Amino acid sequence: MPTQPIHVDMPHKLGRTEAKRRIADNIHKLASFFPGGASVTHQWQGDRLDLAIGAMGQHVDARIEVEDALIRCHVALPGLLGMMAKPIEAALRAKGSDLLLED
Q1: I need a surface site. Which of 25, 27, 81, 103 has the fewest CB within 10 A?
Q2: What is the DSSP string of 4-54?
Q3: How far from 70 is each of 12, 27, 38, 73, 79, CA to CA, in Å?
Q4: 34-62: per-residue pLDDT in tens?
Q5: Running DSSP on this structure, what letter comes out for residue 69?
Q6: Where is 73: in which H helix or E strand?
Q7: 67 by DSSP, 3-state: which?
Q8: In b/e form, how buried is each residue of 7-35, taking b as 16+ CB within 10 angstroms?
Q9: What is the pTM of this model?
Q10: What's the rounded Cα separation, in Å, for the pair 54 and 61?
């Protein structure tokens, strides 16, 4: 099944360690980001957070790479969710930093 990729870079001034801490503290909020909610499992691999998201009957793979001054979010939207790529990308750009880095 083809996927629609989304790539969003979010600058920050927190430093890598603090950004990772805040993401870890806020990752539970990610489920509310998807229409109708979602189930989210995650695992850190160094400075990369791998995510498996179940949303709208679909499986979404994503990863967040944390750098000293940038967070790189990569999401692969399968099937019908791919049609929602633009609004999901826009929401991630608009609210992603607030969602992931809130203290």
Answers
A1: 103
A2: EEEEEEEE-SS-HHHHHHHHHHHGGGGGGGSTT--EEEEEEETTEEEEEEE
A3: 6, 17, 26, 10, 29
A4: 667 789 999 999 999 999 998 778 898 99
A5: S
A6: strand 70-78
A7: coil
A8: ebebebebeeeebbebbeeebeebeebbe
A9: 0.88
A10: 9
